[in-house]
Automatic annotation (TrEMBL):
<dbReference type="InterPro" id="IPR029058">
    <property type="entry name" value="AB_hydrolase_fold"/>
</dbReference>
<dbReference type="InterPro" id="IPR000073">
    <property type="entry name" value="AB_hydrolase_1"/>
</dbReference>
<dbReference type="Pfam" id="PF00561">
    <property type="entry name" value="Abhydrolase_1"/>
</dbReference>
<dbReference type="GO" id="GO:0016020">
    <property type="term" value="C:membrane"/>
</dbReference>
<feature type="domain" description="AB hydrolase-1">
    <location>
        <begin position="25"/>
        <end position="121"/>
    </location>
</feature>
<protein>
    <submittedName>
        <fullName>Hydrolase</fullName>
    </submittedName>
</protein>
<dbReference type="GO" id="GO:0047372">
    <property type="term" value="F:monoacylglycerol lipase activity"/>
</dbReference>
<keyword id="KW-0378">Hydrolase</keyword>
<dbReference type="InterPro" id="IPR050266">
    <property type="entry name" value="AB_hydrolase_sf"/>
</dbReference>
<dbReference type="GO" id="GO:0046464">
    <property type="term" value="P:acylglycerol catabolic process"/>
</dbReference>
Amino acid sequence: MNLSAYEKTIGDLGYVDVGEGAATLFVHGVGTGSHLWRNVIAGLKDERRCIALDLPLHGRSRARDDLSLPALAEVLEEFCARLGLDQVDLVANDTGGAVAQIFAVRHTGRLRTLTLTNCDVHDDLPPEAFKPTVELAARGELAPLAAAALDRPELIAATVYGQGYQRIEDPGALVEAYMRPIFGTPEGGRAFERMLVALDAKDLIAIAAELAALTVPTLVAWGTDDVFFGLDRARWLRDTIPGVEEVVEIEGGRLFFPDERAADLLPHLRRHLAG
């Protein structure tokens, strides 16, 4: 599905808004964007209102000074308030899942339901497989490497994106949707490096007790072949959040399975939202 016809902006934030009815808010992680949710939205847009936010610095959203997890959680609250979204079904992936967890304990009243797909959990930030990328960012070496790949989409398979997808069908589309909005300018690249360094496990560790009291109906849907977030992370969520009703395993799915295997997620998501 091409989301361009449904793109909107409010202030410095870009987002996609399509459909009518109960609002489902989709949140991506670092280095991707609302494009990640296009296939899930295609399956739900005739049933409910689907809103996919571009986090600051991603997609059509501008960078902000504070790109920490707590600040990004407050971006979600600001966004909901600006759009008049009293309650949402929140669906998140990757770093967006970490943001969603903080948002859930700070603004529980905003949530009808919560869905977490492969994402950062508790002290697993950054995950071991992503630490080399964060180290490149800390040394200021990630941005020039990424910028050099903008005009060579075939190189994307050798990056974190190649690890996050089972198969990249259209590398050029991912470069344009994910990488160019960030690394198309030196300022964007530097801001992304700053963002990666600012993400800190202490912000998730700090909310463990609040997660243990979270009763919002929660679905955990997890790709089983993710090199970043293993099934033990899904089980930690199940054993910590009392609102978790089900853990669904997407056999062979990787980090970005909501994009390439939306058809495997949709039946579970529909059932969860209907409940």
